From TrEMBL:
InterPro entries per UniProt: Papain-like_cys_pep_sf (IPR038765), Transglutaminase-like (IPR002931)
Highest classification ranks of the organism: Bacteria, Bacillati, Actinomycetota, Actinomycetes, Micromonosporales
Protein name: Transglutaminase-like domain-containing protein
Species this chain originates from: Paractinoplanes rishiriensis
Matching Pfam families: Transglut_core
Domain Transglutaminase-like: 74-145
Signal peptide: none
């Protein structure tokens, strides 16, 4: 059961979802209602394409992202930018700004790392979504601001981005449980390419999800702690720890309890992490 203290915590910004000089007011001016907020986020960001990651895709904090947007275009963030002027990022950036804006309006929200089933048939695609507390129904609801009308039409997605069905998105704990029960081939989990899927990918996303539940929403390619190397075997001790984390995080009503395990140095985000794409150690917050 989600407690009032947990809701109050998720209604406040974390280190990566807070504004800064010149961005705090702009963040608070974003809409507080989901359909309008999703449209606003879609007018600010665009998903990177191709093998090369843009420089902005490596921005970790809300302040950095919004400062970059406002430096390039000083208009209010509620005014959509043309695609060529939007910040290039990934699913995590869409999620981060959604979560940051909701928290700026004191609405409990958190990022979730896992796997989307709605992009490619048969693939549990590496993905991030936001999860917010709906006070009217007293439940956590998944949202995906990346799902523009064009993307939904291209992929045949019929649900709306402000209410992603649970059966369409597997939080990492769900995927881990299914894998451990022999119900999910781990080669289906990841990006689908060579060395881009497997049990190690599920394990890494589970640790990222635990960090996000502790309000540390890292990049999808940030690596730290107990995250396995690509295709490396997972020892029994770590697997049992991940079993416990998965059981907690798979249920949105108990997911916040994973924060009691977050202080374990194997899971806690250090001051510096390894950027797997850049092959370098970087500070989490510059």
């Amino acid at each position: 059961m989600t407690t009032q203290n947990q809701l109050e915590s998720y209604a406040e910004p974390g280190p990566l979802t807070t504004g800064g000089p010149g961005t705090t007011a702009a963040l608070a001016a974003l809409p507080s209602t989901l359909p309008d907020l999703i449209l606003a986020v879609q007018g600010l960001l665009i998903h990177e394409t191709g093998a090369a990651q843009s420089t902005t895709a490596h921005l970790r904090t809300t302040h950095q992202i919004l400062a970059h947007l406002l430096t390039a275009d000083s208009r209010p963030l509620t005014e959509p930018r043309p695609p060529a002027h939007r910040l290039t990022g990934c699913c995590r950036h869409f999620t981060l700004i959604t979560v940051a804006a909701l928290r700026a309006h004191a609405i409990p929200a958190r990022a979730r790392c896992g796997f989307a089933k709605y992009f490619t048939p048969g693939l549990y695609g590496d993905h991030w979504v936001a999860e917010y507390w709906n006070a009217d129904t007293s439940r956590w609801i998944l949202t995906d601001a990346q799902l523009t009308p064009e993307l939904r039409a291209a992929r045949g997605i019929t649900f709306t981005p402000d209410n992603v069905p649970r059966e369409q998105f597997a939080v990492a704990g769900d995927a881990w449980i299914s894998y451990r029960n022999g119900e999910l081939d781990p080669s289906r989990c990841g990006l689908g390419g060579e060395d881009q899927s497997g049990s190690w990918w599920i394990a890494g996303n589970l640790i990222r999800d635990v960090a996000a539940l502790a309000k540390m929403e890292l990049l999808p390619w940030d690596v730290w702690g107990a995250m396995p190397e690509p295709d490396a075997p997972i020892d029994d001790i770590l697997a049992e720890e991940l079993d416990q984390l998965a059981a907690i995080t798979a249920d949105p009503d108990t997911a916040a309890e994973s924060r009691t395990r977050y202080n374990d140095e194997r899971f806690r985000v250090p001051a510096r992490v390894h950027n797997f794409l850049r092959r370098t150690e970087e500070p989490v917050i510059d």
